């Protein structure tokens, strides 16, 4: 699909009051519902800034969409709580917002997708779309799929399939330790790791498979000592935020020197905190390339972002895909008010991402299919670092259009 010109105006507010301001009558609002306080505040805030910047650069500075309507990002602090997220969802709906963006915590995403589906059934005149940019529980595009939910990140199964393709080629890996946060996503990562390694490398021994409370562990030393004592050649974790940093640093400081394969071990202060310690150890499975930049547009975008947010990082490039693909869908639909038309335009969209390759929004389950990369934490060959640390992510291997033909149990019911 060819890109079209659209404009987004971005205004950020911690929206805790009802009603919409008349001054924003010509904006298309996107509710950002993620943690802006508590242990995962840095992750949420960095994501918010990326949404704001993407809207500004890809839409608003280009004149808007539908003849001049701008995108406005309205921020809601959900404190990483499903219950609080549902409260903020209702506040957003009451303000007339029709697009909901969320990504941190699949537990939150599961609560939101169920609430959105129920709301849309009961309120056909105020339907909303859920734009999931990072919650990767496979169930969201399988048994719990619905027409109103679109996932722009690869799910945990897709990432693990690509990751274990690479691990399977490494004959030095004989023992693997799996550890993660105790909720739906952590369990999905563990299940996928066991299944994929069993199929691709039945000789590999799983020497540990455990979950820990999310956001509550202050000292990971006991976990780290078990990992080192197990003799593991590789560690797999889906941890994110402070849990990723705490686990990774403790494992390394307790003498582990093998690869730690992760989903979210970069940016938001994590890269700087790992620094030299993480070199040769931290690996990350993700979409998008920045070292080297996939395109000149990506390089220019990152340079401009750093000029505006000197302490920030574009560490979730898929956020820019969300904004640009939504813009194109609204233009194709000819309206932002009819979210059924917008959703229909998103289904099956093939989008050329500035971060490299295509993004295909698979119509049967609303799961984005795209290239996946194994990145290494390093200070060598880094054009754009994270956290002003001199360290960044350099692409080591790529799996093209990962899991394009993967099965799905989704039984999509359309309005």
UniProtKB/TrEMBL annotation:
<dbReference type="GO" id="GO:0006865">
    <property type="term" value="P:amino acid transport"/>
</dbReference>
<keyword id="KW-0029">Amino-acid transport</keyword>
<dbReference type="Pfam" id="PF13458">
    <property type="entry name" value="Peripla_BP_6"/>
</dbReference>
<keyword id="KW-0732">Signal</keyword>
<feature type="domain" description="Leucine-binding protein">
    <location>
        <begin position="27"/>
        <end position="374"/>
    </location>
</feature>
<comment type="similarity">
    <text>Belongs to the leucine-binding protein family.</text>
</comment>
<dbReference type="InterPro" id="IPR028082">
    <property type="entry name" value="Peripla_BP_I"/>
</dbReference>
<dbReference type="InterPro" id="IPR051010">
    <property type="entry name" value="BCAA_transport"/>
</dbReference>
<dbReference type="InterPro" id="IPR028081">
    <property type="entry name" value="Leu-bd"/>
</dbReference>
<keyword id="KW-0813">Transport</keyword>
<protein>
    <submittedName>
        <fullName>Branched-chain amino acid ABC transporter substrate-binding protein</fullName>
    </submittedName>
</protein>
<feature type="signal peptide">
    <location>
        <begin position="1"/>
        <end position="25"/>
    </location>
</feature>
């Amino acid at each position: 699909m060819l890109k079209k010109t659209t404009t987004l105006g971005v205004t950020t507010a911690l929206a805790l009051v009802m009603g919409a301001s008349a001054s924003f009558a010509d904006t298309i609002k996107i509710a950002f519902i993620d943690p802006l306080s508590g242990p995962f505040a840095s992750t949420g805030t960095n994501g918010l800034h990326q949404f704001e910047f993407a809207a500004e650069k890809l839409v608003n500075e280009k004149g808007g969409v539908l003849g001049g309507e701008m995108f406005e990002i309205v921020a809601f602090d959900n404190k990483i709580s499903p219950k609080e997220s549902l409260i903020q969802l209702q506040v957003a709906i009451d303000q007339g917002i029709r697009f909901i963006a969320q990504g941190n915590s699949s537990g939150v995403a599961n609560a939101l997708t169920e609430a959105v589906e129920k709301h849309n059934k009961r309120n056909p005149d105020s339907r909303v779309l859920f734009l999931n940019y990072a919650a990767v529980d496979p169930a969201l595009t399988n048994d719990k799929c619905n027409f109103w939910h679109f996932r722009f990140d690869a799910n945990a199964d897709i990432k693990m399939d690509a990751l274990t393709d690479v691990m399977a080629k490494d004959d030095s890996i004989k023992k693997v330790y799996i550890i993660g946060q105790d909720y739906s996503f952590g369990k999905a990562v563990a299940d996928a790791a066991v299944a994929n390694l069993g199929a691709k490398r039945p000789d590999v021994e799983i020497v540990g498979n455990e979950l820990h409370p999310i956001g509550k562990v202050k000292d990971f030393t006991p976990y780290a000592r078990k990992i080192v004592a197990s003799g593991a050649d590789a560690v797999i974790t889906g941890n994110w935020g402070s849990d990723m940093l705490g686990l990774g640093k403790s494992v390394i400081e307790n003498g582990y020197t093998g690869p730690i394969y992760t989903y979210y071990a970069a940016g938001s202060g994590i890269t700087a905190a790992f620094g030299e310690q993480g070199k040769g150890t931290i690996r990350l499975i993700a979409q998008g390339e920045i070292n080297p930049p996939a395109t000149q547009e990506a390089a220019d975008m990152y340079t401009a972002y750093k000029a505006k947010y000197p302490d920030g990082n574009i560490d979730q490039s898929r956020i820019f895909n969300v904004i640009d693909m939504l813009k194109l869908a609204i233009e194709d639909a000819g309206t932002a008010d009819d979210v059924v038309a917008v959703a229909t335009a998103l289904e099956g969209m093939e989008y050329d991402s500035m971060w490299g390759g295509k993004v295909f929004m698979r119509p049967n389950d609303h799961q984005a299919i795209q290239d996946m990369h194994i990145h290494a934490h390093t200070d060598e060959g880094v054009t754009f670092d994270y956290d002003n640390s001199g360290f960044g992510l350099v692409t080591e291997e790529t799996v093209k259009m990962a899991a394009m033909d993967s099965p799905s149990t989704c039984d999509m019911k359309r309005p």
